[in-house]
Amino acid sequence: MEKELKNINFTVIENGIQIPITTRHGSYPNLMYLLKEELQLESFGECGGVGRCATCVVKTSGITGNSAVKDRNEPATLSKLGFNEANIRLSCQIYITADLNGAEIKILEI
Asked: In the list 31, 32, 63, 94, which could disulfide-bond 56, CB 3.0-4.6 Å?
């Protein structure tokens, strides 16, 4: 029996505008790709998702589970820019899972 895919709903804030997003688990490799494609963001995610360029920095609220944990290159990259807050993230390091349901993602300008 195939597992039913449920919608994942969250809000993105870009330039003060709230944008509701509905997607499904795994529909994009990560949040950076979703934001880049859905919002047509220029100069966003320039390193292609390896967690080194910090052109996909977001402020998060309401992310749960494993998605709330910084991993790989993310802490070092953010620290170099002076970001040490737990809720400042690289969107390329956040996967599209149910952990995003109900979250708020604010795109930061660097």
From this structure: 32
Asked whether 91 and 47 are in contact (CB, 8 A), the reply is no
Structure letter (DSSP) for residue 91:
G
**Neighbour tally for 13: CB within 10 Å:** 16
CB 21 within 8 A of CB 38: yes
Q: Are 43 and 53 in contact (CB under 8 A)?
A: no
Domains defined for the chain, CATH in brackets: 7-107 (3.10.20.30)
Of the listed ranges 49-53, 85-89, 102-106, the least confidently predicted one is: 49-53
Sheet holding 17-24, edge to edge: 17-24, 7-14, 104-107, 57-61, 88-90
Rounded-to-5 percentages of helix, strand, coil across the chain: 25, 25, 50
What is the per-residue pLDDT for 1? 42
